[in-house]
Specification:
By secondary structure, this protein is an all-alpha fold. It contains seven helices and no strands.
């Protein structure tokens, strides 16, 4: 957490100074390193999966040429159990990693949002800040309850069902389709709901605070002798507050990107490797094995969509708050 605090402070200072904080050249250089690191972590698993599939193809080919149907069935189930044991280990580690990432994300946001809304209160008033704080807490609570308690366990059930479907030769195909539809509906609905709530909140509350501030400014300007001075002072203070608020909002969004970069690369690498193994299995192995690996890749893809959606919800919340509380600057 100290590392995040240091990054937050240095980024905030650079943004206030008008420096460029996003280097696309550095990101392009760092991305292959992250991908290579994830590949080195996952290579043993996928080498084992490839070896099991290749061995089953060779043995099945020999058995089919000798018309040994019973031996072929034994090879199929032995291969299926081997695949399940390998994938289960990887799946449990991935689920734990995604859960820890979402907890880290919400933990950081619980700390950053109140500090950010203090700047919002300086620009748009305490009522606006408290209203947006309630909306931000709704977003964080949505991630903590819907994503961590419902969606991630549903994805885990989906992947376990896909593994069982391998041994039962397609018995759970419709159940897998139903689970996938439910998970995708929850992800899309959460995004639409948060955007609508934040947009409606941003249409009304900042305008009310702006009207009150404008009334106060006109009352002060009516005092003889200080009309020009009051306008200048108010514009300077309000403009400075807006700059600080937007700089803090941008810093928070960049920190969210930094937190999510490694999980995104990790899950993308996992998805690509699973799809490559599934493609190989589709060419040479049993279609049930190829289908199982494809469904595991789909489960990993839904985990990827979950963390990207959670990051998107928080970034949209910050962006809407920042945009709707600029007071015309």
């Amino acid at each position: 957490m100290n590392r995040v605090d240091e990054s937050y402070g240095s980024l905030f200072e650079r943004i206030l100074n008008g420096e460029s904080v996003i280097s696309f050249e550095a990101m392009i250089k760092q991305l292959p390193q992250l991908i290579f690191h994830e590949w080195m972590e996952q290579k043993q698993l996928f080498a084992a999966l490839f070896a099991v599939l290749l061995l089953s193809v060779i043995i099945s080919g020999i058995d089919l040429s000798m018309n040994h149907k019973q031996v072929s069935d034994i090879v199929y189930y032995a291969t299926g159990i081997s695949l399940i044991s390998l994938i289960t280990l990887s799946m449990s580690q991935t689920i734990e990693f995604v859960t820890a990432t979402l907890e880290h994300l919400t933990g950081f946001t619980h700390t950053a949002i109140p500090a950010y809304l203090l700047c919002v209160s300086a620009v748009s008033g305490a009522k606006t800040a408290s209203a947006f704080y309630a909306a931000a807490l709704f977003t964080i609570g949505l991630i903590e309850t819907l994503f961590l308690v419902i969606i991630v366990p549903l994805i885990q059930i989906y992947m376990i069902t896909a593994l069982l479907d391998l041994l039962l030769r397609g018995l759970f195909t419709q159940l897998l389709s139903l689970l996938k539809s439910v998970i995708q509906f929850c992800l899309k609905s959460s995004m639409a709901g948060v955007v609508c709530i934040q947009a409606i909140q941003g249409m009304v509350t900042p305008v009310l605070s702006s009207i009150k501030a404008g009334t106060f400014l006109r009352a002060v300007s009516a005092i003889p002798g200080i009309q020009g001075i009051s306008d200048t002072v108010f514009d300077t203070v309000a403009g400075s507050a807006v700059i600080i608020k937007n700089a803090m909002g941008m810093t928070t969004m960049l920190i969210l990107l930094m937190i999510m970069l490694n999980p995104i690369v990790k899950l993308l690498t996992l998805i690509i490797l699973y799809r490559l193994i599934a493609a190989f299995a589709g060419l040479f192995a049993e279609k049930e094995m190829a289908g199982c690996l494809h469904e595991i890749a789909e489960g990993s893809s839904m985990l990827f969509k979950t963390i990207v959606t959670s990051m998107g919800l928080l970034m949209i919340t910050i962006a809407i708050i920042s945009f709707t509380t600029n007071r015309g600057f």
